[in-house]
Amino acid sequence: MSTFANAHTHSLVLDTVPKAPPTPPPEVDDRKELNRDEAADENEKIYALLLTLKPPLDKNAARIALKSLENSQIVSLNFAGTAKDDEAEILGKALQGRLLVALYAEALDMLLQEARDADAEAEWWSDLARSWQSVAWYLVQTFPERLKRCFETIVRELRSHHIPVQLNSFSPKTIRSLFPSGLLHPSALTASFFPHISRQTHSLFTSPLELARQECIIRKTKLEVLRNSRAEALGHLFKLKRSIASELQAPSTQIGLGSYPTRIRKLLGDTNASETDVLQGLSILAFQRLPQHASTHTAQFSSLCRPSRLTRLWPRLVVIPPVTLLLFRYIYRSRESLHETAVQAADTVRGFWFGYVVEPVRGILDTVRTGGEDGPRIVSMEGVKADLESLERMALDLSKDKLGYTPSQLEALSEQVRHGDLTPVLKVYEQDIKSPIRSVVTGSLVRSLLIQVQKAKVDLDQALTGIDKLLKSQELTFGFVGVAPALGILYATIGFLRNVLFGSRGKNRYGNRRWRECAWTSIRRVERVLISKELYPDAAQSIPPLTLGLLLISVSHLRTYAETCLPPLSRLREGFLEDVADLEDLEFGRDEKRMVVDRMWRSWGVTLGWTNMAALRKSALPGP
């Protein structure tokens, strides 16, 4: 049984749990004591059968229990209403109820699955008819089958005209004479390619693509009719739960379950069903009506469902082997160049990995580890210090020779030079420049000029030291900027390979895009069913059976999505299934269910991606 049927009938199973009977008074008659022992043995047999029907219910266990009842003698004692044993009556009704609930759940499950299958196939044909490319591919896929029907039609027509079936009998002249066609009436030969046009009173010339598209639309329409039929029966059967529950909760002396097998048989299409006793009705339902309904539905459904997988795959099976062979021959002839290309590609990948990923990352780690002190510099600190000390000595020597500074004055001048102040040297230079020629020959003009050149060198070194510190402070930033493009390329490549090899696994927490789109479509259909005026001709009435059946189809998709894609034992899954149970609840009317739908959009829309699914949804083409 599906989880939908088990969830819907769980309360009914609880209603069939037998209650303890009152304790009988002591008896002294030996014959009564013997009868009591025999009844106890038979009650134990009933109780043993009852234990085989534990939830979740199993249809095979129900049939085994029914067979056991038919082959035993306990039926006349406990089911005919002649027994006076309270325990026998309680166990008898409990077993009747448990068998009825099991078959009721099986009928629910069968109708729901049939409606879901018809709905899925109708959606497939609808998707197919929306794309001319898909219609053309469908025409190619089904061409051998259409050609076979055409050949059979020609052979049948030749035999009906007593023409021998020979190769020359398939000439165009013979075929035109056998299958005359007018402008408004298609020939039998054309109808063998497209059977649906044989039911049309007139037919103008249309392209094969349009005829194939009409065929898809006709099948979709028939499947929707079949789905609505099963959905309406499902709605009636779903509403039957209330009366079954009230009957199971009635006193054990009032056994009135005999009408329910007949009602279920009528909902399954048995128009000639008549009321019988409980056991016979359950037996007919289990061994006749349910199998007959399944076979009837299979016959109706098989002629409308999509072509077989082999039919859809044969063009690829025909094309792929020769293409593979040609590709293999090309690769074998070009194996040397391909080997060289592969070697170059491997070298390129290796160079990219070590040159643009490993080494830059290693440099960043070294920078973090050493603080950037061990890296290359524009100027060395030792060179700057040596130039500054040389400038200081030159300025002190000039001041002592030309200005006659005392040791204290020389010490003060040394401090000034360290701070970049060369005022005494500039004063000497100002005096020498008044008579430059004499100062060049006998004075200190050249000496003061060289001191200023040394001062310029020291200033340049100090400026480069500042630039060096700035670069060192931003070395980590430059390292990340340099490695970022390589890491971006690496991330994109790994993501592409993961999607190719593993699909969307791990990308979406709550199911892949197909599952989430299915859930979005289902919740949208639920809301559409609840607000449709066609399905609610009277706003004051309760939910009609057809509307309820269509609602249950979409809700079952939501339950399957939750049980398949949402994390087990999580609040998300528990809350989602609670909302699904509210949509299935018979006690909730139209307005209450619409409030539940609003709550689901509000609670799960963002988390499950429903809010942007309409923008992301592409036209889904049918698969192979």
From TrEMBL:
It is found in: Mitochondrion membrane. It is a multi-pass membrane protein. Coiled coil: none annotated. Keywords: Membrane, Mitochondrion, Transmembrane, Transmembrane helix. The chain crosses the membrane at residues 476-497. Residues 1-33 are annotated as: Disordered. Its main location: mitochondrion. One of its GO terms (cellular component) is mitochondrial outer membrane. This is NCA2-domain-containing protein. It comes from Rickenella mellea. The lineage of its organism: Eukaryota, Fungi, Dikarya, Basidiomycota, Agaricomycotina.
